[in-house]
Amino acid sequence: MTNDNHAGQIIILNGAPRSGKSSIARAIQDEFEGPWINLGVDSYNAMTPERYLPGIGLRPGGERPELEELVPFLYAALYESIAIHAGFGLNVVADLGHHDSYSQPLGILGDCARRLDGFSVLFVGVRCPLETIMQRREFKQEGRETLYVRATEEVPIPEPVQRWQDEVHRPGIYDMEVDTSVLTALECAEAIRQRLDLGIPEPSAFERIAGAR
Predict the structure, then answer these.
(1) Could you name the active-site residues (predicted)?
(2) Does residue 25 have a known ligand-binding role?
(3) What is the pLDDT of residues 16-64, one digit of tens each?
(4) CB of 40 within 8 A of CB of 81?
(5) At what angle do helices 108-115 and 71-87 cross, to 10 degrees?
């Protein structure tokens, strides 16, 4: 599928859980001109049968190999949907956590990038220090049950949290990066808007990722 003058803009936000991706996506939907459809991990997992969760949110470490066969197909279907939406002139923002730390490499990011060949894609790395992520996790956990692994005095940074931080930004090829520990979600969105206004340099991050075999 190729781009044309009527195709929508695509923004892919990539980062670890609690790094602030979903807040940036909401700010983009609220502040940017025109309709912005959120096709991120939360909305996609809401459509995924519970027995197959966490679906595309499967964390690094290869700990659920029985789900790994399905994950590339879920990502492929999601990115084909992104392409279809953009092809109809709808703008898309997708907050995701790409990594390739499964029981064996699956090459999902490259496949996804190739599915958006010809579209205008801004690939944004959403960074956040571990200390801030842990503060956000603790705040979310207060007063309710949670699926998050809790920190303890003996293990202040749970291993799954460290794995996300280590793996989610590989290979680290982005059009731009934001740090949500120093910028609010709205400020991140504004920086993204300014980057779009300047235009994406050639080749874009997704074009380079798509070409890496």
Answers:
(1) 42
(2) no
(3) 999 999 999 999 999 999 999 999 999 999 999 999 999 999 999 999 9
(4) no
(5) 20
Any catalytic annotation for residue 42? yes
Helix (H, G, I), strand (E, B) or coil at 90: coil
The SS3 call for residue 154 is coil
> In the structure encoding, which two tokens stand for residue 174, read together?
């982005």
Rounded to whole angstroms, the Cα distance separating 36 from 8 reads: 9
Tell me if 18 sits within 8 A of 136, measured CB to CB: yes
126 strand-pairing partners: 178
Angle at alpha carbon of residue 65, lines to 62 and 68, rounded to 5° = 95
- HEC readout, 11-27: EEEECCCCCCHHHHHHH
Q: Which of 4, 30, 42, 166 is catalytic?
A: 42
Closest among 34, 39, 45, 46 to 79, alpha carbons compared: 39
21 is in an annotated binding site: yes
140 assigned binding-site residue = no
Structure tokens at 23: 């807040």
User: How confident is the model over 121-170, as pLDDT tens digits?
Assistant: 999 999 999 999 998 877 554 444 444 455 555 546 899 999 999 999 99
Question: According to the annotation, is 172 in a ligand binding site?
Answer: no
Instruction: Determine if residue 81 is labeled as part of a ligand binding site.
Output: no
